[in-house]
UniProtKB/TrEMBL annotation:
It comes from the Bacteria. The keyword Calcium does not apply. PANTHER family: ENOYL-COA HYDRATASE, MITOCHONDRIAL, ENOYL-COA HYDRATASE-RELATED. SUPFAM superfamilies: ClpP/crotonase. InterPro entries: ClpP/crotonase-like_dom_sf, Enoyl-CoA_hyd/isom_CS, Enoyl-CoA_hydra/iso, Enoyl-CoA_hydra_C. This is Enoyl-CoA hydratase/carnithine racemase. The keyword Nucleotide-binding does not apply. Gene3D superfamilies: 2-enoyl-CoA Hydratase, Chain A, domain 1 (3.90.226.10), Lyase 2-enoyl-coa Hydratase, Chain A, domain 2 (1.10.12.10). Pfam families: ECH_1. Belongs to the enoyl-CoA hydratase/isomerase family. Keywords: Lyase. Transmembrane segments: none annotated.
Length: 258
């Protein structure tokens, strides 16, 4: 099972669900493509007024599906293709969607999960949710566009700790940093997300889209040039021993020797 990203509608509200049973909804390559397709369709649906993004079961998204990594990550061209034309295409489709997005976050929200949540306008989380991007343990950095996105959403201090020290933080810390609108009891998150979506859906949809367009332009203007400077060399680490050791150690369930 490669997982799936699915959507259901309830009137003017859509529910997008990340589902990868047995892997805490980790994002597979197929799921990134599905994410892009769904959000491109949502963006053109004028009847929709809000989207709730959620994980299936007790997790939001535990990151990427590492079991797939040996098949492509150690080749620079394939690695670039994955991040620039699969992952970023999915995230860009979310960022380009002018329908308001509400993230319902429960359980692990790691790596790809933080990136997906960072694309949402409003984020609600359960008290036991955990956030991080501990890919330093896997021997590779976050791709430049993705790092810019996460830094913009969580703030510089948390982004540096997540990426440099593999820091994992609780929901209260992310609330204090301004990433989360609310931290709720775990069993209250689902209802709160629906209630917030209903509140948004009852308001003027054109105003919401115009506000999102303006806020999106303000958020990206300062980072675009910096990312462009990093991209030419961003994936040259693909075939390095450090990269292979990190992924191999994770899959073998042992500590990496860097």
């Amino acid at each position: 099972m490669t997982g799936q990203v699915s959507m259901r509608r309830d009137g003017a509200i859509a529910f997008v669900t990340l589902s990868h049973p047995g892997r805490l909804n980790a994002m597979s390559r197929a799921m990134w493509l599905q994410l892009r397709t769904l959000f491109e369709a949502i963006a053109g649906d004028t009847a929709l007024r809000c989207v709730v993004v959620q994980g299936e079961g007790a997790a939001f998204c535990a990151g990427g599906d590492i079991s797939e990594y040996p098949s492509f990550r150690f080749d620079e061209a394939q690695l670039r293709e994955f991040h620039e034309h699969e992952v970023w295409a999915g995230l860009a489709a979310m960022l380009g969607c002018e329908v308001p997005l509400v993230a319902r976050i429960e359980g692990p929200c790691m790596g790809a999960g933080v990136e997906i949540a960072s694309c949402c306008d409003i984020r609600l989380a359960g008290a036991s949710a955990k956030f991080g991007a501990p890919i330093a343990k896997l021997g590779f950095p976050m791709a430049p566009r993705e790092a810019a996105l996460v830094r913009s959403a969580v703030g510089d201090a948390l982004a540096r700790d997540m990426l440099l020290a593999a820091g994992v933080h609780g929901a209260q810390r992310l609330y204090d940093a301004g990433f989360l609108l609310q931290v709720l009891p775990d069993d209250a998150v689902a209802d709160a997300a629906v209630a917030h979506a209903q509140r948004i859906a009852a308001l003027a949809p054109q105003a919401a889209r115009l506000n999102k367009r303006a806020l999106g332009m303000l958020a990206t203007a300062a980072t675009a040039s910096a990312v462009a400077q990093l991209l030419p060399d961003a994936y040259r680490y693909a075939g390095t021993g450090e990269h292979r050791e990190g992924v191999d150690a994770f899959l073998a369930k042992r500590a990496p020797a860097f």
